[in-house]
Design brief:
Elements lengths: L1 E6 L2 E2 L21 E2 L2 H17 L2 E8 L4 H9 L4 E6 L7 H17 L6 E5 L10 H9 L3 E11 L2 E7 L4 E7 L2 E5 L11 H9 L3 E3 L36 H10 L5
Parallel strand pairs: 1-4, 1-6, 4-5, 5-11, 6-10, 7-10
Antiparallel strand pairs: 2-3, 7-8, 8-9
Length: 258
């Protein structure tokens, strides 16, 4: 079976966020990049499915030339093909992103390479956007299940399980289909040294994409702003039994003690 995994280049968590001088974008010059934990699981699932059923795993991203780094990371863990829909690095909304991905999938099909399963992370780690897989499924007229925590494929059918809190919602989808997965679906493997060497040599397929023009009527972004940093202080009241009077005084001041 042929599996396509769609990933997004996002800043690594834990780093400090800085804005550009005009306040329109996040300044990423000093940021590290990765893909979301959901998408790491999607890549791992694609590799496992191909190992079990044969076929080819392909990874695709829409982003700047630098996003090739994330494509090569997927190749290093077992993905065979990589596709870059190259942009100037500006953020695309879910409508434009889904349209570009669907167009690339149709171009692949026209070239004789059709996909049996399209895998996505459940939502983007930076923007929290969860609409792209559903929009791609709508554009391609394919069945879609989101929030999947267990996935199995047998013949022409995929069985997807969604955690419903007190049980599972189980869906059966005829292939081809679109599935977005959550972190915890599996345990992603680490890339091997031979895998990294292979990734450096692998060619990346490129499809031209047109920058989105305009957009639907609605709110427009004026600028971004960062919340004011908050600081906390700690007062040491004392050590051992000698601190007891200070503790009692604080509790009295707070109204805890009569």
């Amino acid at each position: 079976m042929n599996v396509l995994v769609c990933v997004k280049r996002v800043p690594q968590p834990g780093g400090s966020i800085r804005l550009t001088e005009d306040g329109q974008d996040v300044d990423t010059r000093y940021s590290g990049f990765t893909v979301s934990p959901h998408e790491e699981c999607a890549v791992e699932e694609a590799v496992r499915l191909v190992e079990a059923h044969g076929g080819t795993a392909t990874v695709l991203t829409l982003g700047p030339e630098a996003a090739v780094e994330q494509l090569r990371e997927a190749i290093a863990v077992g993905v065979e093909r990589a596709i870059l829909l190259e942009t100037d690095g500006a953020e695309w909304d879910s409508i434009a992103t889904a349209g570009a991905i669907a167009a690339a999938i149709e171009a692949e099909r026209a070239a004789g390479f059709a996909y049996d399963l399209l895998l996505f992370g459940n939502e983007a780690a930076d923007s929290g956007d969860y609409q792209v897989p559903v929009r791609v499924a709508t554009l391609l007229d394919l069945p879609c299940v989101t929030g999947v925590k267990e996935l199995a494929v047998a013949g022409e059918t995929a069985t997807a399980k969604v955690d419903a809190g007190d049980g599972w919602d189980v869906f059966e989808l005829g292939l081809p289909a679109v599935v977005s997965v959550r972190e915890g679906l599996n345990l992603p493997r680490y890339p091997t040294f031979p895998g990294r060497l292979r990734a450096k040599k692998r060619d990346v397929i490129r499809y031209p994409v047109a920058a989105p023009e305009g957009g639907p009527a609605g709110p427009t972004k004026l600028r971004l702003s960062l919340p004011r940093e908050s600081y906390e202080s700690v007062e040491i009241l004392g050590h051992g039994p000698e601190a007891a009077p200070a503790v009692v005084a604080v509790l009295s001041r707070l109204g805890v003690l009569a």
